Amino acid sequence: MTEQLRPVARPRLYEVIVEQLCSHIADNEMVPGDRLPAERELASKLGVSRASLSQALVALEVQGVLSVRHGDGAVLVRRPAEERVIKALREHADRLPDIIEAREALEVKLAGLAAERRSDAEMAAIDSALAMMESEIAAGDRGVVGDEMFHEAITTAAHSSLLAKLMHEISELIRETRIESLSQDDRPRASLEGHKKIADAVRRQDSVEAARAMAAHIRMVSDVALLREGS
């Protein structure tokens, strides 16, 4: 029997842009530490919108190929192998829904436990994370460090060693979704507001509201462009 033909998968726009960026890095013999042209210039040369370019840059940042910082542009961290980059991009997109499900299962429970069990010192650590994220956003950054600190502080305050271990196991996968989410317009400020609602419930030791606020926060930050484009 002959094997059935299957539809050819059409590459997403950001994949095409990533391929072009990989070619640019190779053709110009760029080395770690070199900076890519400004986004406006790159978008113009590629004939794409800055939003599409930004999504491709973030996809490369998630893989550790680029470092994208406010006021510093996109800096090469390591030389990419084009075939492996595209394969990793597709694997990343495929596993995003599973990461979101895991976050909902773990972090909603952790928020409720944190409200029940947190100490004054742990509440202070949660507030410190909020202040860090606030200062990052005020400086024009995405708030990645403060975001990570906040979720770690909630996990610590929950006093559940096994749940904390599970969170540690998926921390790198969560970091992928964190970068993806916080790179979207207005998302850092919206994420911070979600954190404040969780923190207020933890402060009042209202476990039901803390869990509800965390569930709403995870749903909001999980709305990423990569999944919308892939649907």
Written account of the structure:
- With 231 residues, the protein is mainly alpha-helical.
- It is built from eleven helices and two strands; from the N terminus they run H-H-H-E-E-H-H-H-H-H-H-H-H.
- It has helices spanning 13-27, 39-46, 50-62, 82-117, 120-138, 144-158, 161-169, 171-182, 187-203, 207-221, 225-230; strands at 66-69, 73-76.
- It has a two-stranded antiparallel ribbon.
- Helix 5 (120-138) packs antiparallel against helix 9 (187-203).
- The chain is elongated and about 55 Å long.
- It starts with 12 loop residues before the first helix and ends with a helix.
- The model has no long low-confidence stretch (mean pLDDT 87).
Provide the residue-averaged pLDDT. Answer: 87
SS-derived structural category: mainly alpha
Strand fraction equals under 5%
User: Largest beta sheet, briefly?
Assistant: 2 strands, antiparallel
Alpha-carbon distance between the two ends: 33 Å
Helix-strand topology string = HHHEEHHHHHHHH
> Biggest sheet, strands in spatial order?
1-2
Number of helices: 11
Q: Low-confidence runs (pLDDT<50, min 5 residues)?
A: none
Q: Count the strands? A: 2
Radius of gyration: 20 Å
Multimeric state: single chain
Overall morphology: elongated
Indicate the percent of residues in helices.
over 70%
